[in-house]
Amino acid sequence: MLNFLPRPSFRQLLLLGFLLVALLMAAVSLRGLSTLQGLLDRSQDGARQALQLNAHVERLGDQALTMERAARQYLVLGDRALRQTFEGAAAQAAQQAQALAAARVPAAMTPDWSAQAEGIARLLDAGSADTLARDAAVSLAFRKLAQQARQMTEQVRQITETRNTALQDQLEAGRSAWARQVGGAIVLAVVLALALALGLARPLRRVERAIVGLGENRLEERIDIQGPSDVRQIGRRLDALRQRLVEADADKARFLRHVSHELKTPLAALREGVALLNDGVTGPLSANQQEVARILADNTATLQRRIEDLLRFNAAAFAAQRVVRRPTDLAALVQRLVDEQQLQWRASGLHIALQQEPPDQTLLPEVDAELLGMALSNLLSNAIRFSPPGGRIDWLLKREADGLGIEIADQGPGVPHSERERIFEPFFRGQVQPLNPGGQGLAGTGIGLSIVAETVAAHGGRILCLPHDPGPGARFRIELPHVFAT
Description:
Layout: H1 10-77, H2 80-102, H3 109-125, H4 131-215, H5 229-279, H6 287-320, E1 326-327, H7 330-340, H8 342-347, E2 351-357, E3 366-367, H9 369-386, E4 392-400, E5 403-409, H10 448-458, E6 462-467, E7 474-481
Parallel strand pairs: 2-4
Antiparallel strand pairs: 1-3, 4-5, 5-7, 6-7
Helix pairs in contact: 1-2, 1-4, 2-3, 3-4, 4-5, 5-6, 6-10, 7-9, 9-10
């Protein structure tokens, strides 16, 4: 059932990842704002309650002063209005005391306050003739009342400090909780981002490998990329491209076979005919006719050579796709190639030197000896063709930290700097060409170095054309990474 559900695309998964991260951070932010708002509300309530308690205590103290002043004057003057003032202040003071008791000021203080106020009222109502004694009793009662007021003030201060401390603790707890939430959200967002990145990068790496495989002409491997729908679609298109390239290679091979067959037969007849003319089978030729026959013979030979080079390039490109690696004595391979071409380099009086580093160690890289030998043979053949008579050709085989280096240098005209990047392209022929004994340039087909490049690339390496210092000449360097058996 799930197999029939449409797969999300790369863009949809990317958008989903961003939305999840955004929602996660938004949830944490809203949670933090809610916590902060609650703490602010509690802080405002605490401040308001503290102000109310302080106001009650302050009014209680004011009313106590009013009560004391009115009571003392009443004891002296006996004015009824002063007694009413005392009673009114006492009533208001009782209200403030009840408000403080409602605000969680210790309730035992309210009855004490009321008892002291009632005791003062009874002293005022007593008809004792000893005014001084009654005044002393009233003064003592008011001192007790003042002491209770101070106790209430201290209780209010303690309550305010306790509430402030509790609010501070809540604020710190809220800050710590929010910090943990933010930290957890960040970790979760990073994990989500990494999971999304890895999940999306894996099919992209498969796409990259598929493209690299197409570029390296590895066409036998079917391309099947799993992942989002649009990436799978790219994989299907790449596989269709691979199939078209396979068909194109097959068509090219068939075309070359047909062309070689179709051209070789008439070309052989042409060469035989020209040879008969040169041999005078059809009768003696004049000097001009002999020159024409010679030109025809040279051009047919050149045409046959180029057809054979084209076929050899196609065969080399096909063989480079199937490298068979075996441990190979590299110095022995180079020496065998030198011996095979000794007629050519001895005819020009050339000297060939072979140097190996380290000199006391046999280099046994794992290479395809036949393919690499063909590439090195082409390099040696080029060096012989371009070297001046009596020149020198130097081979250098060197084991390096990351693989193997093979260099060949000659003393010929060298390669112009502008052509060093193009000489490995198929059918590219440089401006500088070797001279034949008559002093005329012998143009090559531009196939040899491209075969070398194909072979080196099939081994995972690269070939470079470097300046030859000191003096003139060309220097080619092959770099093969990690080719030694462990």
